[in-house]
Automatic annotation (TrEMBL):
Domain Cupin type-2 residues, every copy: 76-143
Lineage, broadest ranks: Eukaryota, Fungi, Dikarya, Ascomycota, Pezizomycotina
Protein name, per record: Cupin type-2 domain-containing protein
Entry superkingdom: Eukaryota
Pfam family, one: Cupin_2
Length: 165
């Protein structure tokens, strides 16, 4: 699949003028690029630390963060019809909001949960994957925040990412 069938995202970024007044710094359409493992990703914004520095004059939507970083990431992820994701873990707290379509949240315990338009998943450093079992595209808004590693039975769990983005 060479083209993204869902429309590009309009991204507005605010900032300040020299008098300290709020301004719209960027107002543009941004397009997705296809990730190595299948879905299309639209980078919205990121920060490399917590708390984020809001004094930057760099376009932090252009930063290649990989799956996760030590700050925050906001991206749109578009899943093609009949696609199967890879189960993975990032050491992040994720807020995943389904904007369009339906996906299946797959966990390493074998469970599969349908998540539809308007639903939100709070993902807390678990092994998970996203499948699109439908004939339609699905679009998710994903906000990832660097987190402390989960600890189970006294053992700290590590990131497990079998793909590149």
């Amino acid at each position: 699949m060479s083209a993204q069938p869902l429309p590009p995202i309009r991204r507005l970024v605010t900032g300040h003028d020299t008098q300290g007044n709020a301004i719209v710094w960027k107002d543009e359409e941004i397009k997705a690029s296809q990730a190595e493992h299948g879905p299309f990703l639209t980078r919205i914004w990121s920060s490399s630390e917590l708390p984020p520095d809001v004094n930057t004059t760099d376009d932090l939507g252009l930063v290649d963060t990989g799956l996760a970083n030590k700050g925050t990431i906001c991206r749109i992820v578009d899943f093609p019809p009949k696609s199967v994701g890879m189960v993975h873990r990032s050491i992040t707290l994720d807020y995943i909001y389904v904007l369009e379509g339906e996906v299946t949240l797959t966990l390493d315990d074998g469970s599969k949960t349908k998540v539809g338009k308007g639903n939100i998943v709070v993902q807390q450093g678990t092994m998970h994957g996203w499948d699109n079992e439908t004939s339609n595209w699905a679009r998710l808004l994903c906000v990832l925040i660097s987190a402390k590693a989960p600890v189970v039975a006294g053992e700290e769990l590590n990131a497990e990412v079998p793909f590149q983005i």
